[in-house]
Design a protein that fits this description.
The chain has helices spanning 5-12, 15-70, 74-85, 122-128, 166-225, 241-307, 311-338, 350-360, 362-367, 386-403, 455-465; strands spanning 90-97, 102-105, 139-142, 145-152, 155-164, 346-349, 371-376, 381-384, 409-417, 420-427, 470-474, 480-487. Among the domains are: 242-323; 341-487, 2-Layer Sandwich (Heat Shock Protein 90), CATH 3.30.565. The protein is built from 11 helices and 12 strands. Strand 4 (145-152) and strand 5 form a beta hairpin. It is an alpha+beta fold and 496 residues long. It is rod-shaped.
Length: 496
């Protein structure tokens, strides 16, 4: 399943880059939020101030129109209209008498006409024809059109209608907001620059010790676990330093578990070797004493067999010979086991050794009609003692032949793994009981009724002397699998 491209991009970024991007996103969010709030507040304040200015302007025009209206000086009213319309924020202005006849207007075609939209309107009634305490001073006919009464001593003389230029006001407002936006943008650039510099400083302060720790961890792993110099665990190609540290700890934990397992295995092997040495020393002494006794018993039996010509004596002496031979064979095995191994290490073709062992046991395979299968890799050269490894193969193959039933199946598989050649001899017999799998390579431990318990101990001793390992596991279906490893032969290896 393909990985998420965003996750790959995220993991490829360094912590410093992520910190800068996070600061930029945060500052951008703050800038947009503050800009929206500030611009909305400025727009609201501007419109409120524009309304207030419009009302103040209306009041001043009302005050200027009272006296000319009292004396019916229409020329003065027209002059007031013309002087007022010079203001860019006023689009139209009209002055009415009490019956809403136009006395003065910026539109000369409306002079003398009655504004029917105002005469009799309820809003106008409320403005002009209510008691003084309830009367409104101005009336907004639309967003930017205001109607104000012209009165003196509570007597209504007429009205003033001013239509302010909404486009001009909007343009002025937009100009003001644009100026505010430019200031906000300059402030944002300054804050962005300070934020990015701060993020770089903080990220450098944080990542420097992390990088140092990461580098020390990698060096530690190379020295302790002998990591390949050219190997890559994903921490050498850039990316998030924290992610690298996490991967480093995970890798170190995995290597440490492997190291502890290996240490435990080596301790077990050391204890086993010590035990085997003690047993070997005891076996040697016992075997020599037993041999001396056996020679005496066999000599006495030979004398009786020759001295007495009796069928019963001959039968008993034959039993004594067989028993002595069986015990002598056991003592020889004990002496072989106790004898120190000094392998003559040289380049060996393991494929050839396996084929040789199979050839030597061909009659045993044919006797039980066993189906033999071999899966051998190419170039399986090891540094080993041919005779001793042949002994290992013969012991394991004989055990497999004993374990399988007639027409059984045995598979020999060999391949290279991690600088070792791993050989697996698998059978479909009864398998090895789980409770003795960890004890089966100890001396005198066997799961066969007629076994001496020294064959697998000898196998382990030989394999360990070659700096290899041997273990047993049961197959998933049935039968057992004995596995041993040997170091791959290297042309340029240093021989110790």
């Amino acid at each position: 399943m393909p990985s998420n491209p965003f996750k790959r991009f995220h993991d490829a970024l360094t912590f410093r880059t992520k910190a800068v991007l996070a600061i930029i996103v945060l500052l951008l969010f703050i800038f947009l939020t503050v800009s929206i709030v500030v611009l909305s507040s400025n727009r609201r304040d501007f419109l409120h101030q524009a309304k207030r200015n419009s009302l103040e302007m209306t009041k001043s025009i009302v005050d200027a129109c009272i006296e000319p209206l009292i004396i019916s000086d229409l020329n003065s009213l027209m002059r007031i209209v013309h002087s007022t319309t010079r203001n860019s924020n006023i689009a139209n202005i009209e002055i009415y008498d009490g019956s809403f006849r136009v006395l003065a207007s910026s539109d000369l075609s409306r002079l003398g006409t009655i504004d029917s939209t105002l005469a009799g309107a309820p809003e106008i009634e409320k403005l002009f024809f209510t008691e003084e305490d309830a009367r409104e001073s101005t009336l907004w006919l639309s967003d930017w059109t205001v109607l104000a009464p012209l009165e003196i001593d509570d007597e209504i003389l007429g009205a003033l209608r001013i239509e302010f230029d909404e486009q001009a006001i909007t343009h002025e407002m937009n100009t003001s907001l644009r100026n505010v936006s430019e200031r906000l943008f300059l402030l944002a650039l300054l804050v962005f620059a300070i934020g990015i510099v701060g993020a770089l400083v903080v990220s450098y302060t944080v990542t420097t010790p992390i990088k140092r720790l990461n580098s020390n961890m990698l060096t530690f792993q190379k020295e302790l676990y002998r990591v390949n110099e050219n190997s890559s665990d994903g921490r050498r190609n850039g990316g998030d330093e924290l992610k690298q540290l996490e991967m480093g700890f995970a890798q170190m934990a995995a290597n440490l578990r492997k190291y502890l397992d290996e240490l435990e295995r080596l301790n077990e092997e050391k204890q086993t070797m010590h035990c085997m040495a003690v047993i070997g020393e005891m076996s040697t002494k016992i075997a020599h004493e037993v041999r001396n006794g056996l020679y005496s018993i066999r000599g006495a039996a030979q004398y009786l067999d020759k001295a007495l010509d009796n069928e019963l004596v001959h039968e008993y002496t034959r039993i004594i010979y067989e028993s002595v031979e069986s015990i002598n064979k056991l003592t020889n095995s004990m002496l072989d086991f106790a004898r120190p191994l000094k392998p003559n290490l040289k380049k060996c073709d393991l494929r050839r050794l396996i084929h040789k062992s199979v050839t030597l046991l061909k009659s045993d395979f044919e006797e039980k009609r066993i189906r033999l299968e071999t899966k051998l890799g190419d170039s399986l050269f090891v540094r080993a003692d041919e005779n001793q490894i042949n002994q290992v193969l013969m012991n394991l193959l004989l055990n497999a032949i004993d374990a399988v039933a007639e027409k059984g199946h045995i598979c020999i598989q060999a391949e290279k793994k991690n600088g070792q050649v791993e050989v697996c001899i698998r059978d479909d017999g009864i398998g090895v009981p789980a409770h003795i799998q960890n004890e089966i390579f100890k001396p005198f431990v066997t799961y066969k009724s007629q076994g001496t318990g020294l064959g697998l101990s000898t196998v382990q001793k030989i394999v360990q002397s070659h700096r290899g390992r041997v273990w047993v596991k049961n197959n998933s279906d049935r039968g057992a699998c004995f596995v041993f490893t040997l170091p791959v032969y290297a042309e340029n290896e240093v021989r110790v």
